[in-house]
Specification:
The complex is a heterodimer of chains A (368) and B (221). By secondary structure, chain A is an alpha/beta fold. Helix content of chain A is 33%, strand content 28%. In chain A, 42% of the residues are buried. The longest helix of chain B has 38 residues. The chains are: A alpha/beta (368), B mainly alpha (221). Chains A and B meet through helix 2, strand 6 and helix 3 of A and helix 6 and helix 7 of B.
């Protein structure tokens, strides 16, 4: 393991502590879309209980059609709940009128998958739009927009039009625009889904800065598990209009309880068998076989020099087949596929030694 | 060509321009709000009023499906009421405007409907009122398309204005019919056609250029 991971490669326990009062709370919220004539009603969400702690980044992940778009639009009243209550900063918004919502929306920023910038306005005027709508004086607009363009690193583009910008730059304008009225909550609707991986990283970095430096609570929806892994403190998995699992990102990723969650996190935490072995795995051991072990490293264990210890404690040769180690929500997590002799009692000794190191290990098959 | 004829052609051109300008101007004043309303008042839209939308839609279609020459005759009582007479340049402005307004409304409706709904959603999320959405998002974003639509409307009106000549409306069409056709003066007819071509060309190229300048979706330095 020493070759793979340096003990101080990750900082452990970097998670911030959140204020106990929630920024957003869903209480048994349901949403039914009444069908048009000839069509039945469609239940988009049911029994949603979800709390977004103040100052946190909470990600809702689900496939398309799972209800995540509806969920995020309930927070700024673009959709209205059919049942249950929604509280924002302790205020019940369920019964707000359209005029009440208009005022409320100025305290909630939103960014979009396709940016939704006005093509007829310059970068400056796009960022200024929410302030114009709120009736801010010209001097205030000038000051605020200049500050925000500086924050997102686009001061030199202020007189450009959106058509002249790259996707990442457009989303930066979107973020600046969403922040112009100094909201407490930022809603991100698939904000990086239209961007390439590199640009996604820089936008996620900016969102994290916005969260940590300005203390803005972020609720985001995505179908991309790397987005959750990268910046979310908490994650909720949504399927069929229900939240099937919710918790701290690291816990959910390393100990998924629901099958849907397991499928999502597999792509990040799982390790595939090398192709040349995949076809030769048997469940029963024959004499002379090697056993395939999957070892999971969590948190501080991920930085322990396990393989060299195994060799020295048990005296067994350990052959590394595949492995990965990654940071999930700032904490290290690793998965390793190894082969050791399937001969007893050596195998039992290896498993015993792993257990004593508090590592999760399972035999997934045998090969000759 | 005699100075007398040249004076007639100049007068007719001025009449045509006046008729078209007044019809396009008043037509836009009526057609713009009507078009915006048609584009935003179906079920679930900003100013949802499906019944009113349907009634206005039928009204607009009725006007648009009536051949212009029939419309001119059919609304003579209305024309008399407004202009005091049913012949002459002033009177011709009435049917031209009546034809222009619904035509422009449909063109503007189309232009507004082309605006990405995501922008409307974004504006709502900022706390914009429906009127603010129209003023700050829909109309500015649709402006290039509206400009092209109005250009098309003006070109069509130039054609219509020639038709009102047939019922004593004045302008280039009237001149062409009375001198070019009835008095067998092919040179007058040729000049009338040439002036109309130049007018249409000029309007179209100004409209195209304006629309291109307003369209910020194209990358231009």
């Amino acid at each position: 393991m020493n070759a793979l991971v340096k003990p101080d490669a990750f900082s452990v326990g970097a998670n911030p502590v959140f204020s106990p009062e929630p920024a957003i709370r869903f209480e048994n919220v349901g949403k039914v879309f009444s069908g048009r004539s000839g069509q039945g009603a469609v239940t988009a969400l049911s029994g949603i209980d979800l709390t977004v702690p103040r100052g946190a980044i909470l990600g809702v992940i689900g496939r398309s059609g799972a209800g995540k778009s509806t969920l995020i639009r309930l927070v700024n009243g673009l959709e209205r709940a059919s049942s249950g209550r929604i509280l924002i900063e302790d205020e019940d918004v369920t019964a707000l009128t359209e005029a009440g919502w208009r005022a409320r929306r100025r305290t909630i920023g939103m960014i979009f998958q396709h940016f939704n910038l006005l093509s007829s306005r310059t970068v400056f005027d796009n960022v200024a739009l929410p302030l114009e709508i709120a009736g801010a004086p010209r001097a205030e607009i000038e000051r605020q927009v200049t500050r925000l363009l500086d924050l997102v690193g686009l001061s030199d583009k202020r007189e450009r039009y959106p058509a002249e910008l790259s996707g990442g730059q457009k989303q930066r304008v979107g973020i600046a625009r969403a922040l112009s009225t100094e909201p407490k909550v930022l809603l991100c609707d698939e904000a990086t889904s239209a961007l390439d991986p590199e640009t996604t990283q820089s936008i996620l970095g900016l969102l994290k800065r916005v969260n940590r430096e300005l203390g803005i609570t972020i609720l985001l929806i995505t179908h991309e598990i790397p987005v959750i892994k990268e910046i979310c403190d908490r994650v909720a998995v949504i399927e069929g209009g229900r939240i099937v699992e919710e918790g701290e990102t690291f816990t959910v990723f390393t100990q998924p309880k629901h099958p849907t969650t397991a499928r999502f996190v597999e792509t990040v935490t799982g390790v595939e068998l090398p192709a040349h072995l995949a076809g030769r795995v048997r469940s029963e051991a024959r004499p002379g076989d090697s056993a395939l072990l999957r070892i999971t490293f969590i948190g501080e264990n991920a930085t322990a020099p396990v393989i060299s210890r195994l060799s020295s404690i048990v005296g067994v040769d350990v052959n590394i087949l595949a492995g990965r180690i990654d940071a999930i929500a700032g904490q290290p997590f690793g998965s390793l596929l190894v082969s050791v002799t399937a001969h007893e009692p050596e195998l039992a000794a290896v498993l015993g030694a792993l257990k004593s190191l508090e590592l999760k290990a399972e035999v997934i098959g045998h090969v000759s | 060509m005699s100075p007398e004829l040249i004076r007639l052609i100049a007068q007719a051109t001025a009449d045509t321009l006046l008729m078209v300008a007044v019809a396009a101007g008043i037509g836009t004043l009526i057609g713009l709000p009507l078009g915006v309303f048609l584009a935003t008042s179906k079920r679930g839209e900003l100013f949802a009023a499906p019944a009113v939308n349907a009634v206005l839609g039928v009204l607009v279609n009725a006007t648009r499906s009536t051949p212009f020459i029939i419309l001119v005759v059919a609304i003579i009582p209305f024309t008399r009421l407004l202009a005091g007479t049913s012949i002459g340049t002033n009177a011709a402005m009435v049917p031209l405007t009546v034809a222009a307004a619904p035509f422009i409304a449909r063109l503007i409706e189309g232009a507004i409907r082309e605006v990405d709904q995501g922008l409307v959603e974004a504006a709502r999320a900022m706390g914009a009122s429906p009127l603010q959405i129209v003023r700050k998002v829909l109309v500015p974003e649709a402006l290039p398309a509206i400009t092209l639509g109005l250009t098309l409307a003006i070109v069509s009106l130039i054609g219509f204005s020639a038709m009102v000549g047939a019922v004593g409306g004045g302008g280039l069409g009237d001149l062409g019919i009375r001198y070019g056709y009835q008095r067998f003066m092919p040179d007058v007819m040729a000049v009338v056609v040439a002036v109309l071509i130049v007018l249409v060309q000029t309007v179209q190229s100004i409209g195209d250029r304006l629309a291109r300048r307003l369209n910020k979706r194209l990358r231009h330095a």
